[in-house]
Amino acid sequence: MSVPAREKIVLLSGNEAIARGAYEAGVTVASAYPGTPSTEILENFARYEGVYAEWAPNEKVSVEVAHGASMAGVRALAVMKHVGVNVAADPIFTASYTGVRGGFVIVTADDPELHSSQNEQDNRHYAVAAKIPMLEPSDSWEAKEFTRLAFDISEKYDTPVFLRSTTRISHATGAVRLGEVSGTSLTPGFVRDPAKWVMLPDNARRRHVIVEERMRALATFAEEFDGNRIEWGERDLGVITAGVSYQYVREAFPDASVLKLGMAHPLPSRLIREFAAGVSRLVVVEELDPHIETHVKALGVAVQGKEIIPITGELSTRIVREGIAGEAGPMRPAEGLPGRPPNLCPGCPHRGLFYVLNKFKVTVTGDIGCYTLAALPPLGGMDTCICMGASIGNAFGIEKALGKAALGKVVAVIGDSTFIHSGITPLIDIVYNRGFSTVIILDNRTTAMTGAQENPATGRTLMDEPARRLDLAALCRAVGVDHVYTVNPHDMVRTEAVLKRELFREEPSVIITEAPCVLLPEHRRKKRPVYEVITDLCTGCMACSKLGCPAIEWVPFIPAEAVAAGKKESQKGMARINPLLCDGCNQCPPLCKFQAILEKKE
Amino acid sequence: MKQARGNVFLAGVGGQGILLASEVLGEAFLLGGYDVKKSEVHGMAQRGGAVTTHLRYGPKVFSPLIEPGTADLLVAFEKLEALRFAHFLKPDGAAVVNAQEIMPPSVATGRERYPERIEERLAEVTPNLYLIDALAAALSLREVRAVNMVMVGAASQLLPLPEECYLRALRERLPERVVEVNGEAFRAGRALMAPREAGR
């Protein structure tokens, strides 16, 4: 292996590499909605000189903005997680027809294994369905190179291009060779061309013919593309693979022949036939759906695939070895250990709301965000979670199914950023169609789950510029909700009182719980108290434990220990507050009937 | 342990600074002339949940993930997490384990007990167990967040790089104002390991 000059090799995550690739390709407009595992792409891209980068309210808008920039002759990038493509599918399918002017690349970051997602859909299907070429890097090095290349392909073939990453590409780190910034030779400006940009049926019919011609040309390109390559080894086993699966195959079978595909669509049929003819056993190793396998089979080539490689979850070297060779070696993880699922942070304002909600025995339709974690015990405070914005429509649907019986029985909870993303239209539905649903907007002034990104309600942009802050209460009133109330969720007494009133109101109402996320720097900088449990006063009633705060720890007693601690022999334990974790939110002290939780003195 | 390729598995609890520790380690190996890959998970998995990072180095690394039973070194920031991921160690692998205990939610709410005899159970998995108090070392520097660099320092005693690689990596990866305290934490971690032998 020839090693290029050391100073140009850096360690980058796949996401950093994609950002770098876009920068080197001369992208000047980029738009995204944050979503794991894609978020860091635009965060990193925004740091380069001379670019514009934004958080859009949702993925559909981000694609439309990037497409518009492409129309104006600059290179443009739209970035989203896999489920974001569902939201953006509408403009994507027609952008395929119009094509581009400046190079236009859409990054889809898929999440096999659902590390931080609600499904593990395989977005290679979108490339086929929308007739858009898709590149698929297998590490950071290729992530940067393929991103650059995607813009050239986009302009040459007049098409948007998908770049597909997965969690193990986006959040894996590897070597990348930095290159110079190039770019497009186009002159910025919108050139009027209705036959290309105005998708009236008559124009679109003609564009569809062009799309089919383009995909044939791209199929020819796929045969020549050096990202699709055969690595001949021993001929008794040949593996066709792509993305991170390539790495697992190389690791598990270093001597096998490999057809490594860097382009997921269109696939190189001639190259596949050539490879298949050269090996005695042919296997496709790909995560999730049998995308490559189906294509190979359609060519009439005998191949093994999903009967030996799992269709669910992500792969690993071990899984690949076991699937192909039938052996994997022993693995003995320790059993019976307490799990450590993610949890709301100490001091999280959401905890106060869900503690109160639990008292009402209502059906809680939930949404996508940190607060989804409130579904876990001990809060156990969420009954549904489907997709961005679904909480409101789901609650209204339950109301319409049950009629008056639903009054006081159903509530939707949705975060500030999620509400802006997809919650406004279902709220309009409730008002328009004469509903009485109660919606709670959890406004923690950030997009927290993905690591605290700005959004229209925070008053700052991705470029760290001040922006007009979206007034959520005024927005709700403007769509016709007459009853909009703001509460501090750390104040559980007042929150409970407002909920009691609004849940039973026979008109739509919105409650905004407003308190900053504890991860925000302005909160972290604040001087905060630390609370402690006064051992002598704690009776072990566990009222505070029901908050599920990570800082409140239960110290179990055996009878002798209880007596030694000066307690009744029957006391099962007592609470303790971990001073390293306590955030000083003051939610737990009022819950203690024995006034055992006090502010700790310095 | 000192060899041309290796797998370092980092485990702990979200919020302990594991991702940053692995960044520094990865950068150090790159500076040491190795190919490096590492993999981790962000997002929902991070909120106080179990966090792991796979770090692999060598002349050429393919998979970003370590296979169970093949880690040369387990760097565990928390005792229970050490036990949870001990099966990633190869039979003669080593484990540097922070003695700190952080209760998972089921334990903190009294539904389960924190496992007992973790040290003994770890010793059954690896003969090369180094149990250290990284939290105390960080607190003595008045910087509880430096636990991660104490762990990096301790781990560095079992890795094939010169000290300078780590210190340079620290300077490249951290904001300038925290380089000094993290350098001290790194050296404190190294010192915790220096006079020790496996199993103590």
Describe this structure in words.
The complex is a heterodimer of chains A (602) and B (200). Chain A is of the alpha/beta class and 602 residues long. Chain A contains 20 helices and 22 strands. In chain A, the strands form 6 sheets. Chain A has a 7-stranded mixed β-sheet. A 5-stranded parallel β-sheet of chain A has the order 14-15-16-18-17, sandwiched between helices. In chain A, strands 9-11-10-13 form a 4-stranded mixed β-sheet, sandwiched between helices. In chain A, helix 4 links the parallel strand 4 and strand 5. Chain A is globular. The mean pLDDT of chain B is 92. Chain B is an alpha/beta fold. In chain B, helix 1 packs parallel to helix 6, helix 1 crosses helix 7 and helix 6 crosses helix 8. Chains A and B meet through strand 1, strand 8, helix 10 and strand 20 of A and helix 1, strand 2, helix 2 and helix 3 of B.
Task: Using the 3D structure, state the CATH architecture of the largest domain in chain A.
Answer: 3-Layer(aba) Sandwich
Task: Summarize the helix and strand pattern of chain B as letters.
Answer: EHEEEHEHHEHHHH
Helix content of chain B: 25-40%
Tell me the overall shape of chain B.
globular
The total domain count of chain A is 4
Could you list some keywords that capture this structure?
heterodimer, A: 602 residues, alpha/beta, Rossmann fold, 4 domains, seven-stranded mixed beta sheet, five-stranded parallel beta sheet, 20 helices, 22 strands, globular, disordered N terminus, B: 200 residues, Pyruvate-ferredoxin Oxidoreductase, domain 3, six-stranded mixed beta sheet, 8 helices, 6 strands, 39% helix
Please summarize what this structure is.
Chain A has 602 residues and is of the alpha/beta class. Chain A has 20 helices and 22 strands. Chain B is an alpha/beta fold.
What's the helix and strand layout?
The complex is a heterodimer of chains A (602) and B (200).
Chain A: E1 9-13, H1 14-24, E2 29-32, H2 40-45, E3 52-55, H3 59-71, E4 76-81, H4 82-98, E5 104-110, H5 124-130, E6 134-135, H6 140-157, E7 161-166, H7 167-170, E8 172-177, H8 194-197, H9 201-224, E9 229-231, E10 234-242, H10 245-252, E11 256-261, E12 263-265, H11 269-277, E13 282-285, H12 291-298, H13 317-325, H14 349-357, E14 363-365, H15 390-402, E15 410-415, H16 416-432, E16 438-443, H17 472-478, E17 483-487, H18 492-503, E18 509-514, H19 521-525, E19 531-533, E20 552-556, H20 559-564, E21 573-577, E22 597-599
Parallel strand pairs in A: 2-3, 2-4, 4-5, 5-7, 6-7, 10-11, 10-13, 14-15, 15-16, 16-18, 17-18
Antiparallel strand pairs in A: 1-8, 6-12, 9-11, 19-22, 20-21
Helix pairs in contact in A: 1-6, 3-4, 10-13, 14-18, 15-16
Chain B: E1 6-13, H1 18-31, E2 35-40, E3 50-58, E4 71-76, H2 79-84, E5 89-98, H3 105-108, H4 118-125, E6 128-132, H5 134-140, H6 147-156, H7 163-173, H8 176-193
